[in-house]
């Protein structure tokens, strides 16, 4: 079905509901017309969400599209999705969004980290949800970004490409791969003074964004630079392995999935490579320490990231751990899913305060957010969606090292910092387009 057909059917359905006096927002302070009415359209029902008996104003449905079964980021995506479920359960128990419940479980779909599949399942749910609580992946989300914009569907990305800072419908959190890689190289220059850098990366926005940032930082620091693209899949890493072992760079910025990272780090080390790796955020999974490549990671690897790990001492981290419960093993997929949910919560609250919980109203609320309370999980300046990208982008990142004693397999060695390259960088377009 085309988007135009979908919009036409949605419009006819809305007219029919209005004619019978039972429009979607006709609940509590809903969109039925009174002075205190809240305007609603798609994805908000008059009936409360199931399992939220104390919330009577209606139900806000949010979709989730993630890598849940067979893609390279399953080990991260499953805890991301679980953490978001728990985040919104906590919101509902605390009174919801001014009495509205939030449902993030009814419309959960698996993208298998495939752009075509991502678009297919998105089309299945888009007429039923107000927005997306999660759209995992840079290339996968790129497959639907035009339609998201055309339909004012505010969405939370489970990715950090720098392109999201230039999309009004995207509610990103933390720094992007580009600035993260700049900080990683500046940190390396400070700590062990490399002379050569290689970016080993997946194709598409994810890998190319990190490689672009690495190139900027390498050039600024007077280092030689080379980029090596590698496809997803354990059997596809021979080229990357040969490039690392033949060129012997002092530093490799690695931007892959965890399984492919294990192949690359493990096999290059087995063939004598002694340089350093710094992996961008989604490259790591605590299971890597228990893999055959575990000793190589301990010897050669550092992990960069947009926020502190699962065990960090902030109010937000504590609330996350308390809500997830003691049975949860540390995984920074949980941390990411939790952090990503804060700006959408803030935008929904703002939309209800504006009396407009329609898609257009939610997008308007996003553009009015000049800060978001991340409960200490991000810097106080994070969450400014009102100005230009250069002013609003978060530039701070952290560095961690493998650590058997940590539930997430890593512990912080350098808390939030901004290196000189990221500090001075003029962020006026997606890095991979520069």
UniProtKB/TrEMBL annotation:
<dbReference type="InterPro" id="IPR028081">
    <property type="entry name" value="Leu-bd"/>
</dbReference>
<protein>
    <submittedName>
        <fullName>ABC-type branched-chain amino acid transport system, substrate-binding protein</fullName>
    </submittedName>
</protein>
<dbReference type="InterPro" id="IPR028082">
    <property type="entry name" value="Peripla_BP_I"/>
</dbReference>
<feature type="domain" description="Leucine-binding protein">
    <location>
        <begin position="61"/>
        <end position="386"/>
    </location>
</feature>
<comment type="similarity">
    <text>Belongs to the leucine-binding protein family.</text>
</comment>
<dbReference type="Pfam" id="PF13458">
    <property type="entry name" value="Peripla_BP_6"/>
</dbReference>
<keyword id="KW-0732">Signal</keyword>
């Amino acid at each position: 079905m085309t988007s135009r057909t979908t919009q036409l059917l949605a419009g006819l359905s809305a007219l029919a509901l209005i004619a019978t006096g039972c429009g979607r927002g006709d609940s509590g302070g809903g969109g039925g017309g009174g002075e205190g009415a809240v305007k609603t359209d798609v994805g908000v029902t008059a009936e409360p969400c199931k399992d939220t008996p104390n919330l009577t104003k209606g139900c806000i449905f949010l979709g989730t599209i993630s890598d849940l079964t067979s893609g390279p980021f399953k080990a991260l995506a499953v805890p991301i999705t679980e953490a978001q479920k728990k985040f919104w359960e906590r919101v509902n128990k605390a009174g919801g969004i001014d009495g509205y419940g939030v449902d993030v479980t009814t419309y959960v779909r698996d993208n298998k980290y495939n752009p075509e599949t991502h678009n297919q399942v998105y089309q299945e749910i888009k007429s039923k949800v107000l927005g997306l609580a999660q759209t995992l992946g840079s290339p996968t989300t790129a497959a639907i970004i035009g339609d998201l914009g055309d339909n004012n569907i505010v969405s939370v990305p489970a990715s950090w490409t720098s392109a999201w800072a230039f999309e009004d419908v995207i509610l990103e959190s933390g720094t992007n791969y580009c600035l993260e890689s700049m900080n990683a190289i500046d940190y390396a220059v400070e700590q062990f003074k490399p002379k050569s850098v290689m970016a080993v990366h997946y194709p598409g926005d994810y890998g190319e964004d990190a490689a672009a940032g690495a190139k900027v930082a390498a050039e600024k620091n007077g280092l030689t630079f080379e980029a090596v693209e590698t496809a997803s899949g354990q059997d596809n890493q021979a080229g990357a392995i040969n490039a690392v072992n033949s060129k012997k760079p002092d530093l490799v910025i690695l931007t892959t999935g965890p399984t492919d990272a294990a192949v690359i780090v493990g096999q290059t080390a087995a063939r004598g490579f002694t340089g350093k790796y710094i992996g961008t955020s989604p490259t790591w999974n605590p299971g890597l320490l228990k893999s055959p490549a575990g000793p190589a990671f301990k010897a050669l690897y550092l992990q960069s990231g947009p926020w502190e790990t699962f065990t960090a001492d902030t109010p937000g981290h504590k609330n996350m751990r308390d809500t997830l419960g003691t049975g949860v093993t540390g995984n920074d997929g949980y941390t990411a899913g939790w952090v990503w949910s804060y700006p959408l919560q803030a935008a929904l609250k703002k939309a209800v305060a504006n009396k407009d919980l329609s898609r257009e109203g939610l997008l308007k609320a996003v553009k009015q957010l000049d800060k978001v309370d991340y409960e200490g999980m991000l810097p106080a300046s994070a969450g400014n969606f009102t100005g230009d990208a250069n002013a609003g982008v978060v530039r701070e990142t952290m560095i961690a090292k493998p650590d058997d004693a940590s539930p997430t397999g890593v512990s912080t060695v350098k808390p939030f910092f901004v290196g000189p390259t990221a500090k001075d960088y003029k962020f006026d377009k997606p890095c991979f387009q520069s």
